[in-house]
Amino acid sequence: MEGVVKEFLLESYENLDRLDRDFVDLEKNPSKETFGSIFRVIHTIKGTCGFLSFSKLQSVTHAGEGLLALLRAGRMQLNPQITDSLLAMVQAVRELLADIEHTGKEGSRDYSSLIDTLSNLQKGDPSLDLQPAPVPLGEILVAQGRVRSEDLDRALKLQASGDQRRVGEILVAQGVVTEAEILEALQAQRELKKAALDSSVRVDLGLLDELVNLVGELVLCRNRILRFAMTQEDPDFLLVSQQLNLVIGELQEGVMKTRLQPIGGVWNKFPRFVREVAASCGKQVRIEMAGEGTKLDRTVIEAIRDPITHIVRNSVDHGIESPEVRLAAGKSAEGRLVMRAYHE
What we know:
This protein is mainly alpha-helical. It has 15 helices and four strands. A two-stranded antiparallel sheet has the order 1-3. Strands 2-4 form a two-stranded parallel ribbon.
């Protein structure tokens, strides 16, 4: 199951990065579509938790899902308390995923207070009919005819009553399916996910660095050949060396582009960060971003992460006045922090 957990973590982190961008849009325009996008991310994480027996993460996402469903349906309106609670829920999800990644378990943090807050916020509309979270592997087994729906429900009830085993392990122990059938279903699950992926692939950073170094060595060899070609009079050799120069140049440019990452990966955390700093300073600040897709070398991204965070903190703390001072000066109570990224 380690491979399944690893895939779950990778997929969840990617979804959370997209969710951060959705929260930026939510600050500007709390639309039904944005609420729906955030809901789907939390719903997906929650659904997989049931199969993997991450009960604490499932409880947090379940509470957040219910609140998001109300917002998406237009039965509640976004307000600062709800926004803060949803951001706290996302932070809790990140913490739990980090614990799972490093220890294989959900850690000892207590999120009962957050769960109560999220649950209390949605009590105003008990009529909302929430669809149960899907259990991906279980659905595949049922669709393949290997497991009956009642067998799956029975396994889920055992898990809900405190059984620490994963759903697949319970079904195998009950003799409903074999381990081989579980493995086949997992393969089908991976193929379904693969079909849903876009044209991008994950590449180990160590392998990418090695490739960059090899291209660097190739460029040095090319330069030596070009210098040697200048001393020769053979037209065929000169033509081949020129073609080699063009091909290696394009190869070098292509490899260097693989190291580029959008600066939005660093910026995603700032809406919440600005909100927290502004609240601690007693200020009202709206953040606006432009050029989140601007790409930089990943080493530059890492190098500027902390300095940008420091600049943003100082901008809120020292660059924007308190609401009272702003109003006295004829300004709006809310200050504006603008971040732009572009190539020059």
